[in-house]
Amino acid sequence: MTTPTFTKLWPTQLMEIILPGHDQANSILADHVEKLDIQRAQMTTDYLGDNLFDDQHPVIQWLNQSVQRAVLDYSQNLGIDYSLDFAVQAWANVNRMGDYHNLHNHPHAWLSGTYYVLIPEHDTLPSGRDDRTPNCISFFDPRPQANMTAIRGDGEIDPEHRIRPIAGQLLLWPAFLHHLVHPNLSHETRISVSFNVVLRWNNEYLPD
Question: Does domain 20-124+166-201 have CATH number 2.60.120.620?
């Protein structure tokens, strides 16, 4: 009897890592981002206004270097065995009670990611629905209507992947992947740094 072979088609890779040194960096990073937020009233929504990684503050450059390393690890795990020429455009997010991010993806980028600086530990609103997942991020199956054939136990057609991030965690995913961030239901502030990885074109990227 022949042995079957299995091929996973069209994989969607999500990378998760806790950055070394985050314990020391995050309090400094949070203070710096909050100062920037005072200076720019629409900092979180005007994410193309400037590039946070142009800021030469040591803690910003620590995060910049960590993201650069993560992009290389991500690409190597995909099996990319040639050099990539890319730029990273980053912005800070300061989310107060009730703030959230609607379903979206990141056009014109190759990868997108978020680093979590400060995550509220407790929901401080009155009791309510028990299915709320404040401060989580949800990713959705990029294949249209794939979940129409869902059956119990088939992980290939789970329509949503939800993560409750922790401070110090970096997530990296394909920029085409739709995602949303659940509301902050705490009086504490949620702070993160999001970024896009944009490739500078090289003919070597073309498939054989």
Answer: yes
